[in-house]
Write a structure and sequence with these properties.
alpha+beta, Alpha-D-Glucose-1,6-Bisphosphate, Chain A, domain 4
Length: 154
């Protein structure tokens, strides 16, 4: 059973209220997801803000243009500090994503910690080495560029 963790930290020159308002709005996730993933929220109208227990359904194409359903639950929310989403249905055997924000002298430090377990045991470990880890890096590189485009660079 392979278990992996991916961490990304970015400093953003904006007020914590502004960053929290953006990252805690489910509809904004599309803006920071690479277009090639074909990300779409499905399943009706979502509230403006995330809350514990909230279920969000997406359609995504993470590999080879294959469309799949990904369902996450927002399991923890501490306003202007962090929230956690966990996969309920999707491509991973386990997915736990922590989104932390911390005020700094120059803005906000945003830290993403993704703990995950690929499917298919030993084959998942190989897939992580060959594809999954690199794809996560691409997604979070895109996310960093999107945040810079929206809020500026520090």
């Amino acid at each position: 059973m392979a278990f992996f963790q991916f961490k990304r930290i970015q400093e953003i020159p904006a007020a914590i209220d502004e960053i929290w308002d953006f990252i805690s709005t489910p509809a904004m996730l599309k803006e920071i997801t690479p277009p090639y993933m074909g990300f779409d929220i499905v399943g009706g109208d979502l509230p403006h803000k995330m809350y514990p227990g909230m279920i969000i359904s997406y359609k995504v194409s993470p590999l080879l243009g294959i469309r799949m359903t990904w369902v996450t639950e927002i399991t923890h929310v501490k306003e202007k500090q962090y929230f956690v989403d966990e996969q309920r249905i999707g491509p991973y055997a386990m997915w736990h994503h922590e989104h932390h924000i911390t005020p700094t002298e120059h803005g906000v430090l945003m830290t993403d910690i993704v703990s995950y377990r690929p499917p298919f045991g030993f084959l998942g470990r190989i897939a992580n080495a060959v594809v999954i880890r690199r794809r996560l890096e691409e997604i979070f590189d895109y996310r960093k560029a999107a945040m810079i485009a929206r809020f500026g660079r520090r």
